[in-house]
Write the structure tokens for this entry.
Amino acid sequence: MSARAKALLLCAWVWSQPVWSLDWCGTLLIIPGQIQSNFMIVDGVLRGYGLFVPRNVKQDMPLILDFHGFGSNHRLEAQNSCWRSLAEREGAVVAYPQGRHLVPAWASGDYCCPGGDAGDAAFARMLASCLSRNLAKVLGTTPDAGKVYAVGLSNGGAMAGRLACESSDVFSGVAVTSQSFPFRDVGQCRQVSADGTDKPAVPVVEARGTMDVIVPYVYSWGFSVPARHSVERWRRAMGCLDQPVFEDLCDRPGSGPDCEFGHSGCQSYYQCEHNAVVSQCTLIDGHLLYKNNHDYSPCDDAWFEFQRYHLVKPRWLQYSREH
């Protein structure tokens, strides 16, 4: 190994160690229409993320944090997920956080996955806060505090689920693709804050594949829960009191013109606390559901519920997010 390579490895190791307690939002680098790598420091640890700002960015734009799967990276997530194309259409900003360590992972709850970092949740919250401030400086417009969302695939989906439970005061909705409810105990979700503040219920849209061998639909390898247990835990966690509504997948907002009726469906609860909704959609497909055989977009489906929630959630909740 050359001296230069050794020096680079040493620098990378030093940067990854929490040698001091320091938070720094970093200097924001933006290339409209492209994904630009950015860095920040969270509790003395260097963290990275990709940032996509569309050319048609809106005033008070939505902000989406899209988490990659276990062993993947932010560039592959940006390439394969449907959130970038949605952001281009809707004028939203997407951040693609990068997991730490040689095999990147997220500390996303009780089940998934090994190798996550204890500071992952703090990284997500600080990233949302830093982007709100820095985007205002660079673009002259601030993301809408009531339209900050967490989404992800597999381990990244579980991370989004964890944020729905622990940080629903920051994130107004989550999309969990190819993963499940993140905790063994439903009581761990939306625990009352130290100051006595209740955490609001938020929309949860989960997509599962019946042919998924990584996160199985009807059983578990130990790093997820079966689909029927997952939707029941989400129902209880978000305070849903109604009976489930069963819909054909092709009747959902995320379906396209080539969707074929009678093959897949969704189970939803529409009478949850704070006007939230819990939906679980079942596809006859595998693990990588962003591209599937049903002409169905998990991103469009979740986006519809996010926008509906923004219109109907209680005014006191909207005020608390903005202040």
Remarks:
- The mean pLDDT is 91.
- The first helix runs from residue 3 to 16.
- The first strand starts at residue 35 and ends at 42.
